[in-house]
Amino acid sequence: MWVLDALESGPASLAQLVRLTGLARPTAHRLAVALERHRMVTRDAQGRFVLGPRLGELSIATGDDRLLAIAQPVLVQLRDLTGESTQLYRRKGDVRVCVAAAERASGLRDTVPVGSELPMTAGSAAQILLAWEDADLIRAGLQSAHFSATTLAQVRRRRWAQSVGEREQGVASTSAAVNGPGGRVVAAVSVSGPIERLTRSPGRLHAQAVLSAAERISEGLRAQEN
């Protein structure tokens, strides 16, 4: 638990884990590697330890995570409304993790399994999860991103994002922000599918539906706070 608690605030090197947990270096390393084997912990591009995808999967299985409990039926409704696959993403360090999804039942679709880690440098969900960060994090995130500061300014203004072939060739998506306590962006709701159906302007087709879904999840979180 000490290692997981330490990683809640973001990525950490082994040296940082030692400092945060107060454990001896060999003990911290042994625990972190053991958690990594069980996918409770993983590594980012810099080799730092970050919380792993298994935690999100367990949250869904146990129903303990309020966000996922609220979001799952909304994702199903959004899938049925748009006819496309839907996902919920959270940021974990340098990646975004798919923590919930509702897949299109048949035909050509964009399948993102729960627990998948995708880059924060491409895709409409990445734009959402970066757009409201502080200025230093935005500047750092844009250094290798497929989108620009102008794109993020547009996202903040209209509150939805779109991408066409950014993350994967032939795939388009539209995303909107889920807001938690204090208005902080805690997740991104997405609709994704082949460009042939979503076109090169996926926001024109699905932005309103995605915005409505994100607002329903945000309202659910606010209701549970009261």
From TrEMBL:
All residue ranges annotated as the IclR-ED domain in the record: 54-223
The keyword DNA-binding is assigned to this record: yes
Keyword Kinase: no
Keywords: DNA-binding, Transcription, Transcription regulation
Lineage start: Bacteria, Bacillati, Actinomycetota, Actinomycetes, Streptosporangiales
Location of the HTH iclR-type domain: 1-53
Record protein name field: IclR family transcriptional regulator
Ranges in a coiled coil: none
Residues of the signal peptide: none
SUPFAM superfamilies according to UniProt: GAF domain-like (SSF55781), Winged helix' DNA-binding domain (SSF46785)
SMART domains: HTH_ICLR
